[in-house]
Amino acid sequence: MKYSPHIVIALLAILVSACAQVVAPTGGTRDTQPPQVKEVKPKNESLNFNREQTISITFDEFVKLENINDKLIISPPLEHDIKTKLRGKNLEIKFEDTLKENTTYVMNFNESIVDLTENNPLDFTYVFSTGNEIDSFVVSGRLVNAFDLKVVKDAWVALYNDLKSDSLPMKKMPTYIDKTNEEGSFEITNVKAGKYKLLAIADENKNFLFDKPTEKIAFKNEFIEVSENSINDSLKLFLFEEDKQKLFVEEKKEDGPHFFIKLSRTIDSVSYNFIDTTQSEVLLLSQVSKENDSLHFWMKNIQFDNYRLVVESADFSDTIKFDTDTLTKKNKLKLTNPLPSIQPYYQSIKLEFNRPIKSFDASKVKLLNTDSVTLDFKIEQSKRKAILHIKASLQQDSSYHLIIADSAFTDIYGFANDSIGKSFSVDAEDDYSTLEVEVVNEFDFPQFVQLLDGQEKVIQEHKVDSGKLTFNHLKSGKYNLKLIIDRNGNGKWDTGDYIRNLQPESVWMYEETIDLRPNWDQEIKWIIAN
């Protein structure tokens, strides 16, 4: 049978088209196996290694490198990155540094080598010695944050054999290193017998030095003895940031005759003086914030003017320039926070205004119950003149209406409030929980316990004396307890100082989460061993 040439060409075109179609894979087992090392030269744990030698590693499949100079951990550390050359299934490594004599080196590749298709990481450590023996001692433990005892990952833990220099982490590379893992654990292997200083550094600039004021550090006060007769397998380090922050003006704000400055940290005491004028001529009122980190100045209501002010403390002095202006009718006296719809039964009604209050007329304030009966109350002004409290005998699980008439409150500039009305209800004691905590320990220092909510915010705080600690009026939710050993008795947690060989104040966290429910009293006995 004969075929037309046109038919033959058409059939060939269809055949070629079918062969060229891309067909999706039909499936198969996913590769989960990491690459394996088939051969390494010089062999692992080689002796008398020298820097001129090239390390050659051959794998059973094609591999690629993932940030090897960041992930690879070499102990003792090197000043320069290694040089690598990857050809197919073979990796070559060369050193730029001069290696130390009679020293065991450990190269932990730390998931920096993965297979080509599925990125399965290789777990591989290469050890060699520039001397006649492989050192084999191990120092291990855990690194936690000193303030909250949370584990710290990706920090360098270091041993130093220089026992004389106080500033060695600032100036000298460590003798041995390791990096903490996800659980905060570290294991420095192949250590030579001897005495060492043990530290940890959250090294921001990756130079193995403690040389930035914001870098965190941890250290053991005593030296670590590494020998056949010593056990160094459960050491604990507490990481902290030193209080080296310089005091400075972090923020300043001008609002009419009101001037506000916020400092970079809290202060014990502060003084100020006006330049080119006297305080009595221009200042109505000044206040330091409750947190001792900011100052408020309410100047006399003078037409636009500018001032210079010197603010000083023990380690700080700054001259601040600011401008003021007069208030206008638009600058109303008003509440800075809205009145709540639900009033806690154990608290007074809090009024917080945007400016200090000079006077008030209680006859222009009315508190009514649901029967429109007027209730007795009194108004008390706090030391912070912008805050006032309305105190009355309110019934639990009841509703009320507060009416504040126009001009009931007048500020220090003579401005008065507009009328305010608010209906609210009072909750009940049954809506809350009580927690009693008995703390048992033998610490000789002052101590206090903080109650933390689920966001780790301090809800209440009590000094530890004899007897139980009672935390009242707690909303339902999850809580935790923190105990702080207050060595200097200043009522707050204090950080450490490396040069002064001063550890941060010790912290203990209650091991269990406390789950509180409404109308539920709970008792805890917290025993802490020294």
List the helices and strands and how they pair.
Blueprint: H1 5-20, E1 37-41, E2 55-59, E3 63-65, H2 68-71, E4 73-75, E5 83-87, E6 90-94, E7 104-108, E8 113-115, E9 125-129, E10 137-145, E11 156-160, H3 168-171, E12 176-179, E13 185-191, E14 194-202, E15 216-219, E16 224-226, E17 235-239, E18 249-255, E19 258-263, E20 271-275, H4 279-282, E21 283-288, E22 294-299, E23 305-313, E24 316-324, E25 342-343, E26 349-352, E27 357-360, E28 365-369, E29 378-381, E30 387-391, E31 398-404, E32 409-411, E33 420-426, E34 433-440, E35 447-452, E36 458-463, E37 469-474, E38 477-485, E39 507-509, E40 514-516, E41 520-527
Parallel strand pairs: 10-17, 25-33, 34-41
Antiparallel strand pairs: 1-2, 2-6, 3-8, 4-7, 5-6, 7-9, 10-13, 11-12, 11-14, 14-15, 14-16, 18-19, 19-22, 20-23, 21-22, 23-24, 26-30, 27-32, 28-31, 29-30, 31-33, 34-37, 35-36, 35-38, 38-39, 38-40
Can you characterise this structure?
The chain has 530 residues and is mainly β. It is 5% helix and 42% strand. The chain has 5 domains: 37-129, Immunoglobulin-like (Sandwich), CATH 2.60.40; 137-239, Immunoglobulin-like (Sandwich); 249-324, Immunoglobulin-like; 342-429, Immunoglobulin-like (Sandwich); 432-527, Immunoglobulin-like (Sandwich). The strands form 12 sheets. Strands 11, 12, 14, 15 and 16 form a 5-stranded antiparallel sheet that branches. A hairpin with a 2-residue loop joins strand 18 and strand 19 (258-263). The longest helix is centred in the first third of the chain and has 16 residues, at 5-20. The radius of gyration is 35 Å and the shape is elongated.
